[in-house]
TrEMBL record, chains A, B, C, D:
Residues 43-62 are annotated as: Disordered. The gene is aroC. This is Chorismate synthase. InterPro entries: Chorismate_synth, Chorismate_synth_AroC_sf, Chorismate_synthase_CS. Its cofactor is FMNH2. Its EC number is 4.2.3.5. Pathway: Metabolic intermediate biosynthesis; chorismate biosynthesis; chorismate from D-erythrose 4-phosphate and phosphoenolpyruvate: step 7/7. One of its GO terms (molecular function) is chorismate synthase activity. Transmembrane segments: none annotated.
Amino acid sequence: MSGNTFGKLFTVTTFGESHGAALGCIIDGCPPGLELSEADMQRDLDRRKPGTSRHTTQRREADEVRILSGVFEGKTTGTPIGLLIENTDQRSKDYSKIASQFRPAHADYTYMHKYGVRDYRGGGRSSARETAMRVAAGAVARKFLEQRLGIRIRGYLSQLGPIRAEKLDWDQVHQNPFFCPDADKVPEMEAYMDALRKEGDSIGARINVVAENVPPGLGEPIFDRLDADLAHALMSINAVKGVEIGAGFDSVEQKGTEHRDEMTPEGFLSNNAGGVLGGISSGQPIVASMALKPTSSLRLPGRSIDVDGNPVEVITTGRHDPCVGIRATPIAEAMMAIVLMDHYLRHRGQNGDVDVSTPVLGQL
Amino acid sequence: MSGNTFGKLFTVTTFGESHGAALGCIIDGCPPGLELSEADMQRDLDRRKPGTSRHTTQRREADEVRILSGVFEGKTTGTPIGLLIENTDQRSKDYSKIASQFRPAHADYTYMHKYGVRDYRGGGRSSARETAMRVAAGAVARKFLEQRLGIRIRGYLSQLGPIRAEKLDWDQVHQNPFFCPDADKVPEMEAYMDALRKEGDSIGARINVVAENVPPGLGEPIFDRLDADLAHALMSINAVKGVEIGAGFDSVEQKGTEHRDEMTPEGFLSNNAGGVLGGISSGQPIVASMALKPTSSLRLPGRSIDVDGNPVEVITTGRHDPCVGIRATPIAEAMMAIVLMDHYLRHRGQNGDVDVSTPVLGQL
Amino acid sequence: MSGNTFGKLFTVTTFGESHGAALGCIIDGCPPGLELSEADMQRDLDRRKPGTSRHTTQRREADEVRILSGVFEGKTTGTPIGLLIENTDQRSKDYSKIASQFRPAHADYTYMHKYGVRDYRGGGRSSARETAMRVAAGAVARKFLEQRLGIRIRGYLSQLGPIRAEKLDWDQVHQNPFFCPDADKVPEMEAYMDALRKEGDSIGARINVVAENVPPGLGEPIFDRLDADLAHALMSINAVKGVEIGAGFDSVEQKGTEHRDEMTPEGFLSNNAGGVLGGISSGQPIVASMALKPTSSLRLPGRSIDVDGNPVEVITTGRHDPCVGIRATPIAEAMMAIVLMDHYLRHRGQNGDVDVSTPVLGQL
Amino acid sequence: MSGNTFGKLFTVTTFGESHGAALGCIIDGCPPGLELSEADMQRDLDRRKPGTSRHTTQRREADEVRILSGVFEGKTTGTPIGLLIENTDQRSKDYSKIASQFRPAHADYTYMHKYGVRDYRGGGRSSARETAMRVAAGAVARKFLEQRLGIRIRGYLSQLGPIRAEKLDWDQVHQNPFFCPDADKVPEMEAYMDALRKEGDSIGARINVVAENVPPGLGEPIFDRLDADLAHALMSINAVKGVEIGAGFDSVEQKGTEHRDEMTPEGFLSNNAGGVLGGISSGQPIVASMALKPTSSLRLPGRSIDVDGNPVEVITTGRHDPCVGIRATPIAEAMMAIVLMDHYLRHRGQNGDVDVSTPVLGQL
């Protein structure tokens, strides 16, 4: 398989470039009988959409998704679901400069080395615009998981550059443009982003994502552990440079007595595991965290080379997110949903269905 | 595919339990014509082997690998390579207690929920003993990559609990039982481990792994980015809870002007990217880091439940690594090698061969 | 993977139903740098298109394909190629009867059992309309194979019901609506089809497909032999009930001395093998043949049951091909092209490129 | 994936050469809780074993299989099942001649072109000896299918060269060395084979395989239709040149009214479909047939070339089956079992379990 497909049983294959005609995706393996309409996807697409605040790119895309197949009389049929989003705001501009230069820290240089050609309009296939289709596909998985298993998947921005959220108030997450669960930090973030925009610089971020009520038993050791597939899924999102499950890198300094999550008949007493033991879900909340680097599309000049190997100074103009992490929460949720969906189907294939009548003991 | 296979073109499928008859593996897709003997794998297997110092488990396994197929007259034939390691030190003991209890923070509980049965002898399939076959398979990949492309893959322990290596002296890595590149820290690590063993506790660790001279162009966007596959590979190693590429979680607080690796005609000026841009290798060294949790096999009692849901106090006896990170360096190297090998073949399939005559510009 | 993807490195994933909004497909893994436009695909799509003679269904579909991604400045970029064909002639009709009955020998009954729901409009996903996307994808593979390796893929109808082509004159194949290579048999076929249409019955057919100038070495034993993948590909076409390679079922009565294709320094002396030895191409022409059953959409009544299990008499009205084999030649060619393309890339991945400068010795 | 793995959820990966140390296989994805011992596999292995009559090769292999993992206390655990058969009768002989010649109609020529090297001892990987592991793996699938779904899979030789079985008496199949269901034809076959052996020639055969009580709903359109996967599976068996499902090539001359299997509330009235409609099982018996070519290992001289391209006359000595079809029945059954098992798990993954309490209506 050639890299544009994710999942083994619930498979998502995407196509499309930043400034091409359209983005599209095929979801294969969706169980039949799920009520599904464009509105189910639009909700999440709108959360990811650019241009909803002054802190994201001003590109205007409606990101309206169309279902082209796989749904009949309002329900999935078990056959592949074709999705399409037309690109509407591909601004015509002069790409001649960008075509001959490698922007520092962009995929320009590596795509050119890999393929010998590249679509330089807006980053082509390497643009994060591609993640719109992940969000659409994730919405399908999310709906199924919620209806069938009662799984709830939610994410939030836990850190924007130097500013950390110190409270986790889920109700706040959608009350600000940052997906920040700590209302007290929002003004600070607003000010930080305004200053940054003036400077012309960009900043990194950290996103956490949590899945609750996941039944124990999902995950396929040895290589397709649930956490390994999650790491794969999250690291495949543009700009992600690190992934943690549960205690993550804090585990390095933990002693065994401290890290191990003890159990009682009522459930686990802590969740350093992040909900995964031996690669299999334990019933505890699945907790993952990811680091996003600052975008490299800056109007502050940077040293680079052109396609002939000559030194150049590159300035990136155009419409860019100064913090790609701001719009990444729905994408992280979508990838979590796709991974869980895929593993639920894989588990059911080998082992039969999970017993949804038993309450999940694992909850922290 | 059911989870015990890694790779798309260079595929590694393993079997075997901690106390079963044998461990085995099939490598499929290895290019023909590679000189290969058991000795090529034994070198790495010996580096991972238990019982080589007082700081690791005292289980005695020769870990002697046999090649059963795929090699003829000293060279690979392109057909599948069957490998076998017989288990020789499965100590017979009374497993009745462990059979009915879930050790806290072990896979006992999750395997039971997933499969309804479990091989409780020494952790069965969930034991890190399985990683021996990864090391054997990785040695094949490593040899090919070195001979064909001049790639060098090396790892080291960068942190053992609270003790961080502060120098990176590659020559030191194999001069101590910890794979520590900083000779000055070794006495401290020795003392720390001795104290820990007396306590009966365990500790986490961090391992770094670096691949040098990787040609630009390896990696398959969107989902099978080189870094995503690396994250998958490393997170699939027992006890790993976090993975970073390049600057990793430090990216969260970096500004774009700080993070972006500028280029000159002579190469990159920094390597925050960790050698991967847009999911494709850039020619810079590939740099990954992983966090390993402390083992949960402790003789200090912990609260848990038995298979009937009753509360129990669990004490784990037997032979265990107080720091699984100590033996993890060769495993991380092996997974890096398998990922690069797989991506080299995938790249060659779609795009034709890389030009090995051109020096890699990417070096930092 | 969930059944709607074909190929390992050159992968084709399709979606779409007979009377849905559109058909689509994603080609992933296409080598970069191939000149490609809609016209390259349209040529083959037009050959498969319905309504070009009175002997096929009178449904009017322009089958105009749009490239939505993966092509930039006229060349493939190595990223996924998204293709779309809008359905334009979904005639609105009363489906209430068909919705509650299982047409004999149709997929109605099995889709209902598999998925619990089905899109009954025109057969939904089970309709041969889906093959349009195979033809489009096959055209991409065909173009690459021709330009890069000089491979030529051609098919023809060798038998229509009781009437066998007795001459193989390639120039005749496109001179008649049947893809028949024997001009003498065309009037007989015309008459036969006219009579059949009056009767309201249908008839089977046999299609042969030949690939010339295929380099030796393509095919992956053991399970993904070239002939096994070809059998898979051809049997996956609607209505196909049998596949032969080379001598096929005639091999049953052949002696070894008769079947074996002897060689001289100039090449093979016969081609009972059909170009495949041990699952790997030999350089001889690849020769495959397939049997297509008569369509079961008849206006002559047939006994069946309804969704409640009651006996019913079913009459199928609407626009149908009385011999689905007539339009199957371009589909068989497309699947042959996709299989060869996939195996060429897989071969190149593991073994490096084939040497195209050496003439293929294998030719018969 | 590199060709030595079959199946998506129930995956079988094999290794081993004719004269190597051992044959092996890993079954991944087997449901847990299945009682399994070596004896379950040995029964089928013994049916395939060489040397049980004078009509097969006189190579003596006990073909004793060992289970190395995946079974604990007599039951499968859901983890990979490692199987091993040591080769015991690799007769040492002078291979110098065979090493430099390409035997006509063998894989010698194609393996050499593909890989540049080949293991020429007994055909290496291309030998049908590899099929032993398929039979072992098939036995696991067969046992599960029988216990869980009541599926029965049986095969027979329907034609040996010019001699056709005219009766199908299942009780006779194991009463003669040919798996012939027509006792009256056995003496003729005996005489035919004796004469053939004297001549030094070989002959083709046809094998039929039938699966009864298969629930409706198995098979994944579009590309992974049940019949397409069966064609793949059967064509991947050494020497197979043709595959039919149901009426097969007879469909070419059938009219729609003749071919279509009408239904009544009691079931189908005929089975031209061979149990598959639209790529999905209908509940009717699955009926497949395959053609095996005559072996090309003949002591009658044949024209060929050597590795330098010079003309040579080749005589194949050694121990060979004059009719490979004779031992092929258990192999065909095994592949049928593996395909059905894989599709059952795939179906259960996407759609939930089949209802085994309802009797299968589909029976003919």
